[in-house]
## 1
Amino acid sequence: MLKILNVVGARPNFMKIAPILAEIARRSDDISQILVHTGQHYDESMSRRFFGDLGLPPPGINLEVGSGSHAEQTARVMLAFEPVLVEQRPDWVVVVGDVNSTLACALVAAKLGHRVAHVEAGLRSFDRTMPEEINRLLVDQLADLLFTPGADADENLRREGIDPAKIVCVGNVMIDTLRGQMERASASRILEDLSLSPRGFAVVTLHRPSNVDDKTTLDQIMGALGTIAERLPVIFPAHPRTQTRLQEFGFNLSAGIRLLPPLGYLDFLRLWSQSRLVLTDSGGLQEETTALGIPCLTLRENTERPITIKHGTNRLVGRDPKRIVSEAIRALDDDQPHALPPLPPLWDGHAAERIVEALISHSL
Ligand code: UD1
């Protein structure tokens, strides 16, 4: 029987692993699996709530590494993961996304001679100041199987000299989760709890160190959000890093900006999917808004997900406050109903099936 060890660590990993776990469970006659949580994220609101919302089983093993500098965090995951691998001896280690846990576990597995499969391979921002870009480049060099979300990712990998036989274009696994959870999310009472009407508000998420760790940059972004909040309520569920910085820098939030703690998957899906506009520096949300046709402004200078601009509703607006405000006003003034553009290929809710099928066929 094939044995698969799935790794998660941080919030954006949970929605990527969920459909893969479910698909493997469906094929439990042929495959066994174990879920390892590195503990990179550990708060109820950053981790545990997602297990409930996404119907994930509790992790079989939790490495409980917690927060730290990049070196500390990566090293702690490596130290804790090595004995797990030695004991478990899986046929495949499946890692998802681009967080520190993804790299740490891929590196340990590759050195111990275990096969590594990387889900969401091939994304590139071409910006090596992003820690995630370093993680992506290295994990893709180490992986034995690279599951890509689309053709641009395949092209990036080929350009880096990855053997095309290792690349399998499976589509976007996060969209499997989005489709699978829409109905449950519609039962969320978040709009009623916040007294919001559908399409009557904007949603903001910010957590990139490049946006929130520098006082001047954060000040400018918050100023732009304050101007947008004169038009409509701006709902801002803030990552712990961002909450800390806002307090540390002593910002007084403009009227109209409503700061919330991080939300669970279902409440957050309900919230952004009913919003008029999303402003974000998240990678995943650029894709999710594209899938549902919600206008999205990305407060970054680059994106590893250009397909959301080419095929979707995403606009890269950078961090200049004037540009953020003018693009937001443009999006808000655009009241014409738009036909939803065709979804990028393979954003069809079946990526996890293709992943598990390929894991099986590459094990023969
Ligand atoms: C990590 C990922 C990033 C991803 C993000 C999603 C890396 C390099 N970065 O960034 O790609 O977009 O997760 O959230 O892996 N904290 C808590 N509770 C938690 C977790 C974190 O309070 O459960 C606080 C701690 O102060 C911690 C800080 O958030 O120091 C940053 O956490 P960390 O895991 O280092 O990176 P993220 O910014 O969350």
## 2
Amino acid sequence: MKIDRIGLITMHGMSRRRFLTTAALAGLTAACGSSSEAGASRPAGKPGFRTELRIPPLLRPEPGKGGVRRFQLTMQSGRVGILPGTSTATWGFNGSFLGPTIRAARGDKIQMAVTNRLPETSTVHWHGMRLPAKMDGGPHQPIEPGATWRPHWTVDQPAATSWYHPHPHGKTAMHVYRGLAGMFIVDDDVEVELPDRYGVDDIPLILQDKSFAADGSLAGDPLKGTFGILGDHILVNGTYDPFVNVTTERARFRILNGSNARMYNLAFSDRRKFHVVGNDAGLLPAPVTADRVSLTPGERMEIVVDFAPGEQVVLRSVGGSADIDEGDLELLKIVAAARLADSQPLPARLARTAPIAVPAGARVRRFKLNGHDAINGKEMDPTRIDEVVPAGATEIWEIENSVYAHNFHIHEVAFRILDVGGSAPPGYATGHKDTVYVPSKTTVRLAVEFGRHTDPRTPYMYHCHILRHEDSGMMGQFVIVEPGTENQISRTIPAAHHHM
Ligand code: C2O
Ligand code: CU
Ligand code: CU
């Protein structure tokens, strides 16, 4: 990150000191000198919590004509200090690593300009956004090196924590692993008294696991083995070994699993209870108390945690048996100030959106996840339309898993988990979602609400969000069309119309 880019980001919600720290961490290679005890080879699981959590800056939009908010993102390569005494070659948006947090409200007209300064073609997908297929940023909207892509849409969905990341077919795993990912917060005007001061009591946590070579470079092949990368160093917002100071009685954490394959079973070191207030696609109707929650790649969760003055607690991941959640990991130490500012009590009611209801006679579609590279026996083919869905439909999608751990993400939609292996989902996962864990040998049923943007020639994707699986073909394509025209829709996209 060059200093002149700092003009693009705002200090909203951050003290100047924290802002400068953040900018320095984002922009400079290891300022922290080499320290013999804090070597790169220290195994994960024995952290010292030495580095203050980096908070991604908010991206300030420029005002455009007709109330349009214009956001500029540049995909670029650079170097960043992650492990003490080393620097790592990485990719990022508007900086060397990760990206700024985009924040927009329901009703906003958004105009994006995404410039690719990388040496290869990429795309930027707005994961969780409800928008026309041409704006979605999947494999059919490539951005060549040197080019700028300008999608635009009007935000029309409830408040949620979304994110953005590349989606070039076969290369998503590598592009995300190198550092291309950022948070995208949607606000709405429903009055809910949740902590909302960004970086103060509303804190983004992007969880990612990486492996490093001795010289600090990223190691591991995201397309190797059954799952690709399961890194032995956990980064939060790109910070290794992080702590964060909280200054209020209650803080909200927006947690994004931005890992290639790893699943986290989140709990606190003292097993305290916390309040889950949001799933991927919006707030829950009411807070749900939990002491442990699971998050697979691509999923988000918002939690609110109560703190006592002066206490310290560690956010951990508890090892499980899913192959992608091995080992107990320490993620982040939270340090409460000796005096904490008052927070609003937790509201009893949150989202006003009704749960997604299944209409009588809803269409049922079945998807079988095969091995680690196919759905219903077919590998992803960018020229093939797999499913044609009428606009505005609510359908039941049944996802059956045979072997390995998988999850399932659907672009453009919100869904509700009906059941997992015949049982109701845990209370903390009953809200609007767009990505769901599908354990091995289990069937998950979803009530899926589709949007109303029609385009018979440009597909949206559904896929496993373990990026190694997505890249090797565990992905399919659907179009949303005018109801009644389903049978007239061509199931192939002429080669001239796709750019792979
Ligand atoms: Cu987050 Cu199709 O992806
Ligand atoms: Cu998506
Ligand atoms: Cu998978």
